[in-house]
């Protein structure tokens, strides 16, 4: 059977600050992220089954990504754990949606982080092929499974 790739696009708004960055991005600022998730597998061939002809139902892929990525990160603030504690405490007093991560929250690191969340959640017979995360209309980072085995 031929391997088929399908892609679903998502959108979320998130703020971040880059610790120790020499420029404006060291300040809290937000992006309108666009996320493309591509999965790969064989289209099922089960006549009469609701999933006949599908690699994965687009609705199921949407539910998976919304539950674990977009619903969690939308309108959140993500910061590096290296930010001084007094600043972190000030931020905690301003938002309930604060993610403190062990990495610099750049688009490059976020795309790998998202892949790490989604990869083990793929249903049997479906694999994560790639993730593309747009930080702006003209700037994005990509993660490919073949580059990260």
Structural key phrases:
3 helices; Tetrahydropterin Synthase, Chain A; alpha/beta; single chain; six-stranded mixed beta sheet; 149 residues; elongated
Can you describe this structure?
With 149 residues, the chain is of the alpha/beta class. It has one domain (3-147): Tetrahydropterin Synthase, Chain A, CATH 3.30.479. It has helices at residues 58-73, 85-92, 107-118, and strands at 3-16, 29-42, 76-80, 98-101, 126-134, 140-144. The protein has a 6-stranded mixed beta sheet with strand order 4-3-1-2-5-6.
Report the order of strands and helices.
Answer: EEHEHEHEE
How many E-type strands? 6
The class by helix and strand makeup works out as: alpha/beta
Please count the helical segments. 3
Level-2 CATH architecture:
2-Layer Sandwich
Strand content: 25-35%
Q: What about the largest sheet? A: 6 strands, mixed
CATH superfamily: 6-pyruvoyl tetrahydropterin synthase/QueD
Distance between the termini: 23 Å
Number of individual domains = 1
Please state the overall shape, judged from the principal axes of the Cα atoms. Answer: elongated
CATH class group: Alpha Beta
> How confident is the prediction overall: mean pLDDT?
94
Give the strand order of the largest sheet, numbering strands 1, 2, ... along the chain: 4-3-1-2-5-6
Helical content stands at 10-25%
Radius of gyration: 18 Å
| CATH fold title | Tetrahydropterin Synthase, Chain A
**Which residues sit in consecutive blocks of at least 5 with pLDDT less than 50?**
none
């Amino acid at each position: 059977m031929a391997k088929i790739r399908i892609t679903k696009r998502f959108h979320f708004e998130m703020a971040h600050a880059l610790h120790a960055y020499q420029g404006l991005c060291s300040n809290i600022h937000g992006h309108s992220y666009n996320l493309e998730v591509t999965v790969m597998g064989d289209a099922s061939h089960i006549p009469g089954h609701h999933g006949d002809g599908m690699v994965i139902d687009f609705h199921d892929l949407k539910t998976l990504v919304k539950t674990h990525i977009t619903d969690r990160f939308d309108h959140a603030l993500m910061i590096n754990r290296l930010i001084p504690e007094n600043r972190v405490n000030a931020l905690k007093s301003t938002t309930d949606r604060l993610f403190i991560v062990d990495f610099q929250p750049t688009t490059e690191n976020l795309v790998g982080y998202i892949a790490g969340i989604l990869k083990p959640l793929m249903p049997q017979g479906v694999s994560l092929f790639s993730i593309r995360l747009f930080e702006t209309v003209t700037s994005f980072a990509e993660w490919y499974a073949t580059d990260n085995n």
